[in-house]
Design goal:
Layout lengths: L1 H9 L5 E3 L3 H5 L3 H8 L5 E4 L3 E5 H15 L48 H13 L7
Antiparallel strand pairs: 1-3, 2-3
């Protein structure tokens, strides 16, 4: 019987909520609580230094805040739309247009390139810088 009484007592929410727990009870930081909630609810001393708030008054403030600040949403609003245009469409139909690469203006043939490569230009420049200088006489 003592265990049943202890279990019942632990499931009862306290009526008084200390200042350190009140912001967490409403799901906000202490600064926001001090700015938004505290000026609108009564507070009272608990012990020598403690400050408390009435849980029921905090609940009433929260209900009023929700009523004043909530945003109405459309009844049939679909928040789970597919993220891709391809998802959710008819099977076999691609809503995206086919991407075509631009036609090449150059003829492609196998064999050795006739264009001078950048590597050979670099090699010639390197040879000019590091090679022997011709004598001036």
């Amino acid at each position: 019987m003592a265990n049943a009484t202890a279990a019942k007592a632990s499931s009862i929410s306290p009526r008084f909520i200390r200042f350190m727990d009140a912001p967490g009870y409403l799901g906000m930081c202490r600064d926001e609580f001090n700015k938004t909630v505290r000026p609108n609810v009564r507070e009272f001393p608990i012990g020598k230094q403690g400050v408390g708030f009435d849980r029921i008054e905090l609940d009433q403030w929260a209900d009023e805040y929700i009523e004043a600040k909530s945003i109405e949403k459309a009844a049939n609003q679909d928040n789970n739309r597919p993220r891709s245009e391809r998802q959710g469409g008819d099977k076999g139909v691609s809503p995206w247009r086919e991407k075509r690469s631009p036609a090449s203006t150059r003829k492609v043939e196998s064999g050795k390139s006739t264009k001078c490569s950048e590597a050979s230009a670099f090699e010639r420049a390197l040879e000019l810088v590091t090679g022997k200088k011709p004598s001036s006489t």
